């Protein structure tokens, strides 16, 4: 009898915690970055297999990108990125966990500007960020786009002096998520 009551309480707690949560997710989010400088080869990559989840009832947002998922035009550049700079065998993923400020999905009409405050983790280093984002809703889909700048040194990523003049100090990052209601 005691086991039955305990099981019933656990089931009730699970159901109550799930009620009111509006989850949206994707496994095909897009992150592009560019760190090109004039007169040198383009330093640009894209990853179209980024996972993200949004709890629309709380505004909590999280994203995860596997570092080996970034594709460059030049294979050697991709190899250097993974082996020498990002060290993707040691630091295989980058994550962002945050909260969309003043988020209320029911009040979104058209494209709306928001701020996402959270922690970005890459190369074993955390950095608090405030990312401006544009969010729109179309039926069961939430579109989230953002653009921001980051610096490799903020994440203890060392750029060798021999190539430092060929890579921009500021890396432009573009993200796009089409999150589907779960």
UniProtKB/TrEMBL annotation:
<feature type="signal peptide">
    <location>
        <begin position="1"/>
        <end position="18"/>
    </location>
</feature>
<dbReference type="Pfam" id="PF04264">
    <property type="entry name" value="YceI"/>
</dbReference>
<dbReference type="InterPro" id="IPR036761">
    <property type="entry name" value="TTHA0802/YceI-like_sf"/>
</dbReference>
<keyword id="KW-0732">Signal</keyword>
<dbReference type="InterPro" id="IPR007372">
    <property type="entry name" value="Lipid/polyisoprenoid-bd_YceI"/>
</dbReference>
<feature type="domain" description="Lipid/polyisoprenoid-binding YceI-like">
    <location>
        <begin position="23"/>
        <end position="180"/>
    </location>
</feature>
<protein>
    <submittedName>
        <fullName>YceI family protein</fullName>
    </submittedName>
</protein>
